[in-house]
Amino acid sequence: MTTHQFSRRAFLRGVGVTMALPWMESLTVWGDTPPVGVKPASEAPVRLAVLFSGNGFHSKEWWAKGEGKQMELGKVLAPLNDFREKMLFIRGLYNEEAQKGNIHSSQTGNLLSGAPLASGGEIRSGTSIDQLVAQRYGHSTKVPSLVLGCEKSNPSVHKNYSMLYSSHISWTSPTTPTPLEIYPALAFDRLFKDEVSLGDKSVLDAVLTDAKDLRRHISSTDQRKLDEYLDSVRDVEQRIENAGKKGELQGWRPTLEKPNIARPADGIPQDIGEHMRLMCDILVLGFQTDATRVCTLKLNNDHSSLRFPNLGVDYMIHHLLSHSDTADWLKVNQFFLEQVGYIARKLDAIQEGPRTALDNTMLMYCSSMLTGSHDAMQLPVVILGGAGGRLQGGRVLDYKEKPDRQMCRLYLSMMDKMNVRLPKFGDATRQLEEV
Known about the structure:
Blueprint: E1 11-14, E2 17-20, E3 47-52, E4 64-65, E5 72-73, E6 87-91, H1 104-108, H2 129-137, E7 146-149, E8 157-158, E9 161-162, H3 164-167, E10 171-173, E11 176-177, H4 184-192, H5 203-215, H6 220-242, H7 272-288, E12 294-298, H8 318-321, H9 327-348, E13 351-352, E14 355-356, E15 361-366, E16 381-384, E17 395-398, H10 407-416
Parallel strand pairs: 3-12, 3-15, 6-17, 7-12
Antiparallel strand pairs: 1-2, 4-5, 6-16, 8-9, 10-11, 13-14, 15-16
Helix pairs in contact: 4-7, 5-6, 6-7, 7-9
């Protein structure tokens, strides 16, 4: 192995670009102090990802039972079948404050905080778990937290509650929802571009000279890893460039059959499947390069107006579809779970020493209600990954008939695994011991 020394944070640099590098055996990327006479790579950090989709799931097909390889999954969860041994399925947790309004907004705005929500035109929730973790780790990464979405915020009011609650799961403070990035190109720029504008220049083109220099100082294994990483960045760049060229429009119905203005150069992909996949890839790149250790990805809003012509389900918006248990509703549910499985598969293919990036991640997927009938007395929760060896998968935990089943107890446990220890969070004062 090479003895070349690198600084605590290893980057590729070019004009207007800084690209953090993935974990490599040749580099002490994350700054651990090795034993005297030994120069091993550092241990990768633990990451937190929260994925959300609104309106719940098929009432008869969200379930899991058994353990490990023998775990059985309901049809909604079928796309996660390959990850049963790295999965924690949690049933029966709930958020007491979300019961007060019993509508989409009141059940979503405090999903990651358990805080009381203001109504009557006022906006007040609570700082969410992802932002508390970001406050701890933000100084160590280029982007303290990456907050992504695939559907625009809704500024209207529904039954005396702001629909901003339905549109945001991440809150920087009780009165400030964290800005939501729905444009893949801008999310990509946050990870790699500096303040200097590159125009249309490729991020990779800007750092190729530095990359070639780096290759001379790393092992052959790391050379392959570097090539794979640069290829993945190039692939995302090219897909962003092509995004929006398809003619499909999803979500709301346009008032014109054809646009009456020129198409913006950088916009939202018009195919919802491609939009979600781009955001999934950007999340993975953020973790792979340690550009961020915290990411939320809101696949859609609660009370969502998305449509899914990519699935042949274009006759009804997501919210209305959620009030049924049809085959099409199940198809849409599985589509969302496919995005979770896609992220898990990509993270699990990234080797970081003895573990994979998935092993070093807590990837939580949740919704603000179990079904479209507003059942929030038991929230749907799945966690994939190992939190750096601190989380055991292959298990089903059922709290439905137990006391003290606050969702915020789970958050205290998750924060503890990232060395963020609080005496209280939301309505919880102790962790879930089983987690």
